[in-house]
Specification:
- The protein contains six helices and no strands.
- With 119 residues, the chain is an all-alpha fold.
- It has one domain (4-117).
- Helix 5 (74-88) runs antiparallel to helix 6 (92-117).
- The termini are close together.
């Protein structure tokens, strides 16, 4: 598909991503990397949440936040930031109560990226 308007109409701030990544070729390459990493990342985050390993949870939430910010996934970046900070505070109750919000938005973005990339 690779229609930038599709990304924009789904709330992706492509212009922000292009400011950091330079051009669409690099942006698309980075989207592929994001896709490869984030399905596994969600499983790992869930595992860390389940075992109460908030240190590693915070590290992965930070990675998700950074990647999302670079690519213009503003809402996901904001949610991941909250989870990163709460993980650093060892606030397992917040993480548990709000994990579905993070997972839902991450899966929404993953689906958008898959459609955009034609996967």
């Amino acid at each position: 598909m690779k229609d930038v308007e599709f990304l924009k109409s789904n709330g992706v701030n492509v212009d922000q991503g292009l400011e950091l990544l330079g051009d669409m070729e690099m942006y698309d390459d980075t989207l592929n990397d994001f896709l490869d990493e984030n399905e596994n990342r969600l499983d790992e985050l869930n595992s860390y949440k389940t075992t109460g390993d908030m240190n590693n949870y915070a590290i992965l939430a930070h990675s998700m936040k950074s990647d999302s910010k670079y690519l213009g996934f503003t809402k996901l970046a904001e949610i991941a930031l909250d989870h990163e900070l709460k993980g650093k505070e060892n606030d397992i109750n917040y993480v548990t109560e709000h994990f579905n919000e993070l997972e839902t938005e991450a899966r929404r973005i993953i689906d958008i990226v898959k459609k955009y990339l034609g996967k």
